[in-house]
Amino acid sequence: MTTYYPMAQPQFPARPQQRTWDLVLALVLYSIAAALGLVAAYFTVFFAFAADPCSANNCRDGYLGAAFAVSWGGTAVALVGSLVMVIVAAVQRWYQWYWPVLAMIMIVASFLGGVALASQVYTGS
After folding, report:
1. 42 DSSP β-pair partners
2. What is the DSSP string of 22-83?
3. What's the rounded Cα separation, in Å, for the pair 42 and 24?
4. Which of 30, 31, 62, 68 is the most buried (most CB within 10 A)?
5. What is the distance between the alpha carbons of residues 79 and 111, in angstroms, rounded to a whole number?
6. Rounded distance, CA 114 to CA 47, Å?
7. Is 51 helix (H, G, I), strand (E, B) or coil?
8. 68, 114 Cβ separation under 8 angstroms
9. φ, ψ for residue 122 (rounded to 5)?
């Protein structure tokens, strides 16, 4: 007489529960990152004042365009990338709160990069 044993099903680890505190914190931090992005975009407009002392021969206008591109582009990449990664982290049930923090760091870094480029517009000669 043969005994039938059904095939054992593989045991997968249980997915962690969605953490409410993590989702709320991620949304609050993302809101702060979006507000920081708006402030950075607003202050980027003042980069144009770097060209005020310029005359015909002592100004590098290309740096001003690059300053705008770095500041606004970095802010946009940080906010869109952070939003995408928060959604991916929510679906995968990973921690979500640090993506907006990384966005804030990237917004500040791109704004400071824009400031550094804007400060190179006037050659002083």
Report:
1. none
2. HHHHHHHHHHHHHHHHHHHHHHHGGGGGGGTT--SSSB-HHHHHHHHHHHHHHHHHHHHHHH
3. 27
4. 30
5. 13
6. 8
7. helix
8. yes
9. -90, 125
| CB atoms closer than 10 angstroms to residue 79 | 21
Distance CA 71, CA 87 (A): 25
3-state secondary structure 71-86: HHHHHHHHHHHHHHHH
Q: Are 26 and 99 in contact (CB under 8 A)?
A: yes
CA gap 26, 20 in Å, rounded = 10
Q: Is 46 exposed, middle or buried (0-12, 13-18, 19+ CB in 10 A)?
A: exposed
pLDDT in tens, 84-124: 999 999 999 899 999 999 999 999 999 999 999 988 887 77
pLDDT value, residue 69: 95
Residue 21 neighbours by CB distance under 10 Å:
8
Q: Is the pLDDT of residue 17 over 90?
A: no
Specify burial of residue 124 (Cβ count, 10 A radius: 0-12, 13-18, 19+).
exposed
